[in-house]
Amino acid sequence: MAQYKAEQDDWLSVYLKYLLFVFNFFFWVGGAAVLALGVWTLVEKSGYLSVLASSTFAASTYILIFAGALIMVTGFLGFSAIIQEDRSCLSTYFCLLLVIFLVELVAGVLAHMYYQRLSDELKQHLTRTLSENYGQPGAAAITTSVDHLQQDFKCCGSNSSADWQHSAYILSPEAEGRQVPDSCCKTVVVRCGQRAHPSNIYKVEGGCLTKLEQFLADHLLLMGAVGIGVACLQICGMLLTCCLRRRLQLRFY
């Protein structure tokens, strides 16, 4: 009877090991996805960050990159702990899972808070940025961000191209008679903004405000979905880690 119980305990330990190994593989893949999403956001979409009043979106992105890198490192530790059946490594693995879970929780709260006030912030800040900061000395980053924004989203102005009529840049001698910046043009050439005809510039209903708001909202939802998916995996992983560590502890007593 004692031998049967010992064999049963060994079978349970092996079963838990393989289950935790499979979990750790998907956890590591999830970490790679989180890291890739964060890096892609920072590299490809960082130009839009200059037109945002709040740094919450950027902070969420950096937290995502940190969490993704930590997940991948933790994944390698998990593989080592499972193969060696090392209880101390399993304890460290569990603690790191808990830390990552808390980091993702903070990122999720930040993303949710920013999502709630996204529309109001964009309405207030984007129009002011276009009218007061675009093309001004010392605002090269903002000017470049707005140019990328209008070209990427094929839009012109905050709500419409008419927003540029009150811009400090358009009213200045530097505009050289432009009615809108050249980045509003469907085909960008020097001083193409002197002709604000629908055949020449983008005339989009809702302007850049609607398109940027939709982009940020979709991106925040994607970040949230990835975070929730990985967090659910972590809860399963923490439970499996506790069970395996307990089985290994009983084996040695």
UniProtKB/TrEMBL annotation:
<dbReference type="InterPro" id="IPR018499">
    <property type="entry name" value="Tetraspanin/Peripherin"/>
</dbReference>
<keyword id="KW-0472">Membrane</keyword>
<feature type="transmembrane region" description="Helical">
    <location>
        <begin position="90"/>
        <end position="115"/>
    </location>
</feature>
<dbReference type="InterPro" id="IPR008952">
    <property type="entry name" value="Tetraspanin_EC2_sf"/>
</dbReference>
<comment type="similarity">
    <text>Belongs to the tetraspanin (TM4SF) family.</text>
</comment>
<keyword id="KW-0812">Transmembrane</keyword>
<dbReference type="InterPro" id="IPR000301">
    <property type="entry name" value="Tetraspanin_animals"/>
</dbReference>
<feature type="transmembrane region" description="Helical">
    <location>
        <begin position="21"/>
        <end position="42"/>
    </location>
</feature>
<keyword id="KW-1133">Transmembrane helix</keyword>
<protein>
    <recommendedName>
        <fullName>Tetraspanin</fullName>
    </recommendedName>
</protein>
<dbReference type="Pfam" id="PF00335">
    <property type="entry name" value="Tetraspanin"/>
</dbReference>
<feature type="transmembrane region" description="Helical">
    <location>
        <begin position="220"/>
        <end position="244"/>
    </location>
</feature>
<feature type="transmembrane region" description="Helical">
    <location>
        <begin position="62"/>
        <end position="83"/>
    </location>
</feature>
